[in-house]
Design a protein that fits this description.
Blueprint (H helix, E strand, L loop, with lengths): L4 H6 L3 H13 L3 H19 L8 E5 L6 E5 L2 E2 L5 H30 L5 E10 L2 E6 L2 E5 L15 E11 L5 E6 L3 H11 L1 H5 L2 E9 L3 E8 L6 H6 L4 H9 L4 E6 L4 H8 L7 E5 L4 E5 L2 H8 L4 H10 L2 E4 L2 H24 L1
Parallel strand pairs: 10-11, 13-14
Antiparallel strand pairs: 1-2, 2-3, 4-5, 4-7, 5-6, 7-8, 9-10, 12-13
Helix pairs in contact: 2-4, 3-4, 5-8, 9-11
């Protein structure tokens, strides 16, 4: 078939015209379509007619008429009435190729929005994964990208973060979307805060436990801008919009400062009146304070200090009152020994 591809494409018949039109509109290679047509027609012949193993079978298209013929060892053996079967098989293949091409184009267009937030509806469920319909694309919404505790119902609309590409269980390429990715929160704020969109306020760091709590550090690029107040919005309207989209997830907005001690202290809010000492060599921050403030610094199940650790990118060790007491005693004993040695001298 492929040896006379040029003649087939320039033929003046319905088959050639349809092939040219579809391939041009959908940007499909004609040779790819014809190969699939050949396979489908030979499969249809083998199913209903005598097939000799070892013989050479091929499909031939008469360029002048578009007639489909079966050749065996270069000899025409097309059964009477097989033309209708062949035409139907060719039609199904071409329709399938069109569908695949449309899907590939839609996937490519959606991937151009990688790193952005789009709206979509829950289309179907497959085990613990869901598929979301976005601009005719069935995007994969895997379990690990879902917000824990959030329920998803068919046809329910959500906003999703375009994360990248993945494969379906059938091996075809598709788009992967997320609601659990930390960048999803950043993009939601970007949609609500014009200063973030314009770049006069930037996100310096973020730490998130999806569905529970997020800590986000922001800074102003220009003087005269309150980055935290800008993200919170008047009467908290901006941050509340993001919280509502995340199903009530708590969000702590922190002003980023280059001073490491001040930043770690801010990251541990709502704890106040705490002291931070740095072990620069081992990149460990030791936190001191009374029991009430230390409990706030740690948070329920250790969540607050866990998020602060990730936000600051430092190990944070909250020193209990017992540890503080032992450390103080150790320091005092060390001082006494040093004083004793000086007296002996």
């Amino acid at each position: 078939m492929r040896t006379n591809l040029k003649k087939i494409l320039t033929g003046r018949n319905e088959f050639s015209a349809a092939l040219n039109q579809i391939c041009a509109e959908r940007e499909i290679e004609p040779e790819v379509v014809l190969e699939s047509v050949e396979e489908a027609i030979l499969a249809a012949y083998k199913k209903d007619y005598e097939w000799e193993e070892g013989a050479s079978y091929e499909v031939d298209i008469v360029p002048e008429s578009g007639e489909l013929r079966i050749l065996k060892n270069k000899k025409d053996i097309t059964p009477t009435g097989f033309g209708r079967i062949a035409a139907q098989a060719a039609k199904q293949v071409i329709l399938q190729k069109v569908k695949e091409a449309e899907q590939e184009t839609a996937v490519e267009k959606l991937l151009q929005k990688k790193g952005k937030v789009v709206s979509g509806s829950i289309f179907r469920r497959e085990g613990s994964n869901y598929y979301v319909l976005i601009n005719k694309v069935e995007a994969l919404f895997p379990k690990k990208e879902q917000i824990r505790g959030e329920s998803y119902e068919l046809n329910q609309r959500f906003r999703f973060y375009i994360k990248g590409t993945g494969e379906t269980r059938w091996g075809s390429q598709t788009v992967v979307v997320s609601r659990a990715d930390p960048d999803f929160v950043i993009q939601l704020f970007t949609q609500e805060v014009p200063e973030l969109m314009a770049g006069s306020v930037v996100v310096k760091a973020i730490a998130r436990e999806p569905g529970q709590r997020t800590k986000i550090a922001v800074a102003a690029v220009r003087s005269g801008i309150d980055p935290v107040g800008t993200c919170v919005g008047q009467k908290g309207v901006r941050v509340q919009t993001v919280i509502n989209e995340l199903g009530g997830e708590k969000i702590d907005i922190i002003q980023y400062v280059p001073d490491r001690i001040k930043f770690i202290r801010a990251a541990l809010s709502p704890a106040e009146k705490i002291e931070v000492k740095l072990d620069e060599e081992n990149k460990i921050a030791y936190v001191y304070g009374d029991s009430e403030q230390l409990a706030l610094a740690i948070g329920k199940d250790g969540q607050n200090v866990r998020l602060a650790t990730r936000l600051a990118n430092w190990d944070i060790e909250v020193m209990s009152e017992d540890k503080q007491k032992r450390e103080k005693e150790k320091s005092e004993n060390k001082e006494k020994k040093q004083k004793g040695k000086k007296k002996e001298k």
